[in-house]
């Protein structure tokens, strides 16, 4: 079926039930849609060959499977989820802010990336109930460590409890407080030995977190930023609230950053996977 550019750009739909929303900002988040398009950064001798965004959507570059609730459930059920992650998901779904949990397919992708990287050290900014925290920690080796930053002490207690129950507490260094301040402590120590960083926090602070994490991650390591499709609002010209503007600006900033190789995927509410360039 042939679709117009407008229809393709705007085609998003709400994923129900098991979706497990990904954002963890302190503002109301309206989730969760799967975007019809993703764009991949292309490198030529470490220099990005850029095209106007409008030229990306064109004939032959528009393959898209519409995600229905039934299809989403089918996909999720094909992936293994550990019993403890299922328990965290059930617990979180019952909370008023349950939509802020990472989605199952996100955490499965992170686990795969971590194992491919042979990651030893990881960072997570924004913990919430610990769904992604436990998933990341499970993918790390026994001597691995995850620095998990969360400013809400009550929700951090919940996450730490699930880490204990999952048997991964020895891998998780949970840090309570303002992530901008706490992460900067690692930067000030001259650390640059982390393999992976996941940013899912205050949307207007994501760019600052990205800059911090890019310093902390080794060449070849990954910085993953969540919510880059923002419920489809990034392509809605009538949406100009501060969070939406911040996400649009961050997306363009990542697209133009020649320090990274960028891949944006319609996983969860959209993730930007940033591979740090340079020699190890």
TrEMBL record:
Example GO molecular function: O-methyltransferase activity
Key words, A-Z: Methyltransferase, S-adenosyl-L-methionine, Transferase
Gene3D superfamilies tied to this protein: Vaccinia Virus protein VP39
Keyword set includes Nucleotide-binding: no
Pfam families reported for this sequence: Methyltransf_3
GO BP term, pick one: methylation
Keyword check for Phosphoprotein: no
Similarity annotation: Belongs to the class I-like SAM-binding methyltransferase superfamily. Cation-dependent O-methyltransferase family.
Name this protein carries in UniProt: O-methyltransferase
């Amino acid at each position: 079926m042939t679709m117009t550019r407008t229809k393709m750009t705007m085609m998003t739909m709400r994923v129900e039930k098991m979706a497990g929303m990904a954002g963890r900002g302190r503002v109301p988040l309206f989730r969760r849609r799967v975007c019809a398009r993703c764009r991949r950064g292309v490198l030529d001798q470490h220099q990005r060959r850029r095209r106007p965004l409008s030229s990306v959507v064109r004939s032959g570059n528009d393959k898209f499977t519409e995600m229905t609730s039934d299809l989403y459930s089918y996909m999720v059920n094909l992936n293994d989820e550990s019993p403890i992650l299922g328990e965290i998901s059930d617990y979180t779904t019952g909370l008023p802010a349950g939509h802020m949990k990472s989605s199952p397919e996100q955490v499965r992708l992170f686990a795969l990336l971590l194992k491919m990287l042979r990651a030893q050290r990881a960072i997570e900014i924004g913990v919430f109930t610990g769904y992604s925290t436990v998933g990341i920690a499970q993918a790390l080796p026994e001597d691995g460590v995850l620095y998990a930053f969360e400013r809400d002490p009550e929700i951090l207690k919940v996450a730490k409890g699930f880490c204990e129950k999952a048997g991964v507490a020895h891998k998780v260094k949970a840090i309570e407080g303002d992530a901008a301040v706490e992460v900067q402590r690692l930067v000030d120590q001259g650390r640059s030995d982390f393999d992976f960083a996941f940013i899912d926090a205050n949307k207007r602070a994501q760019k600052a977190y990205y800059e911090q994490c890019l310093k902390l991650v080794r060449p070849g390591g990954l910085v993953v930023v969540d919510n880059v499709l923002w419920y489809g609002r990034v392509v809605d010209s009538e949406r100009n609230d501060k969070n939406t503007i911040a996400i649009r600006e961050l997306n363009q900033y990542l697209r133009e950053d020649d320090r990274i190789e960028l891949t944006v995927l319609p996983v969860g509410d959209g993730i930007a996977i940033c591979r740090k360039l340079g020699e190890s």
